[in-house]
Specification:
Length: about 750
């Protein structure tokens, strides 16, 4: 095979056309920026480059700062009334009347909390995700918030990292699809619609690759991996129209992302043509000193601005040092003007200068929003096991025992970054099951106070409930505060005495169903061995209870698929499907090594001697109450030409008893490449709805552009040669075909 790249200049051109189509530079906005900039003092300019979090309530001193134009924006500021009043002061009492911008972490809902982002990604349903983001935008903008620090599109391949909960998982294609849906939902077609909010693609870049899953740790990412895995979701967010980007906390290859000219100038601005706003993360600029990169806070300010950070979040190195840096000519005025321009552009794009000063209003949770949250949750839950079709349960069942610390825990159910969600809005599984069955048939005995509890006092009552019931429902997992930012775990098992609780309740010898709510993939083999069915519900949000009850009783059929690989043990991490082969791959005969005690070592192949090589559940995996049969893979040709297309189709039949959806996945593998390529890479997905007995043909169309990756010269190329292709239910199975790219 030759490694001559096809000419893909065309690809790059198409991409920029897409960006510009969404976000053209508006000449009238640019003129207004020019005229404003010409009237601004240096203090006012630095103010536009500074974001405060200090406005818990609107004190007199903050009002004075707003009049002086000391802040462009506020993070997590006050309530709706404070925000409306602050905006009135900025617009009518500051010298230039520049509006404020209120930002907040609207990660997976505002008042209505949808599943955590990792859970939403498990739905593989961009349409519903877009609607959820729209609902969040409407609720947030009602309360004066016009900027969300989302979507988070950090590729996360390490379940130890607590922020995997906020991520779209391990795969750049899936991350791009679900992240773009969030951008569309937030920004709609027009950012100046008062109900639109600005998206912020974060954390740029490589934050998900922090070593050993330890929060804020360094990331080492070779450039090919950066360009093929970690950067594409950011690029996809810009193509979807995202108008802001947040730099990450971590160093990447030794350079803090916050002062990283390569990432922020060369790639983001020059290669991708980004004309939006770049914000630092929370105090990340002065943190460059602790990283051992900047010599002082002033030096950090210079490095950050030089790299292209337009707005400093929370810390005040710009306020404290920029004037002096400009006077001493260590920072050119041009850097300041460029940054201010980028900030004002965002405010103009949002229509903030032109809309009436908002009045204070409260977001309410509507029946529609609840319905949407319930549907998205139903789609995000993944059925991992269903022995002998235990699920769905018959509605006529005499009684169920509801056991475990997460059956009735509203705050935990909302997951991390749900600060505007309210516990009183949440419907828990216990409440929903009581509604379905009536109190007398829903026997509740939590057994443990919370997920980490070790006190066994509740075990006897739980066992008693299990003995009285036909089926035991075990609500297990991790509490809200165990995942999210600064919540790295070195053990990813079920915390506390949950496994012991399951063993105790197992003595009743009743069929058990485990429903696990968590912010990350956990390891829970002991539970899987004892439970006949397992549903993975992530942190499911406001309507988690009704969604889970619907799934348990067959009013809905599970269709979620894992957006991340589940390891058998923490010792396999990092483990992800899009790995490279080795020179000595293990043979199929070498699979099945039992976990824990080393087997007699045999052979010199790439594997472990004390655990199987494969994961517990592969990326893309998820069962249904139906059995979906894949058949008849066909390719429109054996050859894909540089400028041609190739159709890949297969038939999908619902052999089950229920109407339901299957997420069909398209994978490819470039067999020989100038930079070795993963054994499989996801290139397409389709959610297909099928009635019992129905067959549908699913067709994907591939172009050479879909096959492109970066070569050793960092060019995006599609290399001629043989490729494998799969239409598959997950990353470990599927119908396989071959074609050649010419
Ligand atoms: C997080 C960001 C977040 C910011 C503001 C930081 O600690 O890393 O993701 O947007 O806080 O809340």
């Amino acid at each position: 095979m030759s490694h001559t790249p096809l000419r893909f200049v065309r690809l790059v051109v198409l991409f920029f056309a897409a960006v510009l189509a969404v976000c053209p530079l508006d000449s009238s906005i640019e003129q207004r920026i020019d005229s404003l900039l010409a009237r601004m003092t240096l203090d006012e300019k630095i103010g536009q480059m500074s974001q405060s979090t200090s406005m818990a309530t609107l004190t007199e001193s903050i009002k004075a700062e707003i009049r002086q134009g000391r802040w462009s924006s506020f993070l997590n500021a006050g309530g709706p009334a404070d925000r409306a009043e602050a905006q009135r002061i900025a617009r009518s009492e500051s010298r230039l009347g520049i509006p404020l911008l209120f930002g907040r972490d609207v990660l997976h809902g505002y008042r209505t909390i949808f599943p955590i982002p990792l859970g939403q990604a498990a739905s593989w349903d961009p349409e519903l995700i877009e609607q959820a983001a729209r609902t969040a935008a409407v609720e947030a903008s009602t309360e004066g918030i016009r900027w969300s620090f989302a979507p988070m599109v950090d590729i996360a391949r390490d379940p130890r990292w607590g922020r995997i909960a906020e991520s779209p998982g391990e795969d750049p294609y899936l991350a791009s699809v679900v992240g773009a849906a969030v951008v569309r939902g937030f920004q709609r077609r027009s950012l100046s619609d008062p109900q639109s909010i600005a998206a912020c693609a974060k954390h740029y870049a490589g934050y998900g690759a922090v070593e050993a899953g330890r929060e804020y740790n360094s990331a080492w990412i070779p450039e090919v991996l950066l360009r093929d895995v970690y950067l594409p979701p950011f690029r996809a967010m810009l193509a979807a129209g995202a108008v802001s980007v947040m730099a990450a906390f971590n160093t990447i290859n030794g350079v803090p992302a916050t002062g990283n000219e390569f990432l922020l100038r060369r790639i983001l601005r020059e290669e991708w043509g980004f004309d939006g706003t770049v914000v630092s993360d929370y105090t990340a600029i002065p943190e460059m000193e602790a990283h051992g990169y900047a010599a002082s806070a002033g030096d950090a300010a210079r490095e950050a601005l030089g790299a292209g950070i337009d707005i400093e979040m929370v810390s005040t190195t710009y306020h404290d040092h920029l004037k002096e840096l400009i006077e001493s000519r260590r920072v050119p005025m041009q850097w300041v003007d460029d940054a201010v321009r980028n900030v004002l552009r965002l405010k103009f794009r949002l229509g903030l200068f032109d809309q009436p000063i908002p009045v204070s209003r409260q977001a309410v949770i509507t029946a529609d929003a609840r319905g949407l949250a319930q549907r998205l949750t139903m789609e995000s839950v993944v059925l991992l096991k269903n022995e002998n079709h235990l699920l769905p349960l018959a509605p006529s069942i005499r009684s169920v025992a509801i056991i475990g610390p997460l059956a009735d825990s509203p705050v935990d159910q909302m997951g991390s970054w749900a600060m505007d969600g309210r516990a009183e809005d949440v419907v828990t599984p216990l409440a929903a099951l009581r509604q379905t069955l009536g109190n007398a048939r829903a026997l509740y005995a939590p057994g443990l106070k919370n997920s980490r509890a070790t006190d066994r006092n509740g075990f006897a009552v739980a066992l008693d409930a299990a003995r009285k019931a036909d089926v035991v429902l075990l609500f297990l997992g991790e509490e809200q505060i165990l995942s999210g930012e600064a919540r790295s775990r070195a053990f990813i098992n079920l915390p506390g005495a949950q496994e012991d609780l399951v063993s105790e309740v197992g003595k009743a010898r009743k069929p058990m169903v485990a429903i696990i709510q968590a912010g990350r993939p956990l390891t829970f083999q002991k539970v899987t061995a004892q439970a006949r069915a397992v549903l993975y519900a992530w942190h499911p949000g406001t309507m988690g209870g009704p969604a889970i009850a619907d799934l348990l009783f067959g009013r809905a059929v599970p269709s979620g698929k894992l957006p991340v690989t589940f390891p058998r043990t923490i010792g396999q991490v990092p483990i992800y499907y899009a790995r490279l082969n080795t020179g000595r791959p293990a043979s199929p005969a070498e699979l099945g090594i039992p976990m824990g005690n080393p087997a007699n070592p045999e052979g010199y192949t790439s594997k472990y001697i004390d655990v199987d090589l494969t994961p517990e559940y592969p990326f893309g995996y998820g069962l249904s109450y139906n059995d979906f049969a894949y058949s008849q893979l066909r390719l429109s040709a054996q050859t894909l030409m540089e400028d041609g297309t190739l159709s890949v189709s297969a038939d999908l039949t619902n052999r089950g008893k229920y109407g339901g959806a299957e997420v069909v996945q398209l994978y490819v593998h470039c067999v020989t490449a100038s930079v070795a390529q993963p054994v499989r890479v996801l290139k397409g997905l389709r959610r297909v709805q099928l009635q019992p007995g129905e067959t549908k043909t699913v067709t994907f169309v591939l172009t050479a552009a879909d096959l492109a990756y970066h070569n050793q010269q960092m060019q995006l190329v599609a290399e001629p040669g043989p490729y494998q292709v799969w239409i598959a239910p997950d990353s470990a199975r599927g119908l396989q075909g071959e074609f050649t790219l010419k």
